[in-house]
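Lab notes, practical 5.
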Amino acid sequence: MNAAPYQAVFFDIDGTLVSHRTGSIPQSAKETLLALHERGVRLFVSTGRHISEIRRLAGVLDFPWDGLITLNGQYCFDGKTPYYAQAIEPEDVARLVRRSRELQIPCKFVEEESMYVSAHTDVVRRVQADIHTPLPELGDLSHGLTHPVYLIVTYCTPAQQTELLAPLGHVRSTIWNPFAFDVIHEDGSKEKGVRMTCRRYGIPLERAMAFGDGENDADMLRCVGMGIAMGNGAEVAKRAARFVTRDIDEDGVAWAVRRFGLLPG
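Output from the prediction step:
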């Protein structure tokens, strides 16, 4: 069998591997991942989720992942050992704590080993239900003043998000739900995680493929040799990709992998 045209494939989780409709990984995608591994292609997760959330998603960690890019590139590890981490600047964390209290906007702080949300509002409940994930534990955001915070989820409208982040100087945010944003360090992104991962494993970027569906996937899709947006993806992801595959529930991952010759058929 000829060598695969790409040495590595990076996968977003929600809307890319895990269907929003079924809450599970399509059988065709499961078979594709295992077949890629058998062919010697390296497999990586690239997600905005924390590892504790990934563990609760049925089936995701059943595959032989070579590495996990979590928290939108802010925390990358091989399953045991971190090889890249970028926390939000402490002064920005402090500003957001104050501002979120003033505006009464619930936020989730994500640290290395834990995450906690400031309130269980109707908006928080709705957003978490949309991604088939239990409510985070309640916690005091002041904890983030003395511990590194790698990602912050803000539960609000776009207009509220602009007002909330106005005093912060070194962050960037991406929307992944009409009422939820990921906030990370301005230098962080899934692209940064992909670049650090490729450097660690000696993989040329042009020999890497990535699948994604959301705004936070766009820079990742642009930086690899073949960025593929899901048919169910956001327009910003489709514009950033070199190719748009079928919907996740129409075997989009399996179809694209075979179309580009990583697997026969």
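Observations recorded by the TA: The chain is about 30% helix and 20% strand. The CA atoms of residues 111 and 147 lie 7 Å apart.
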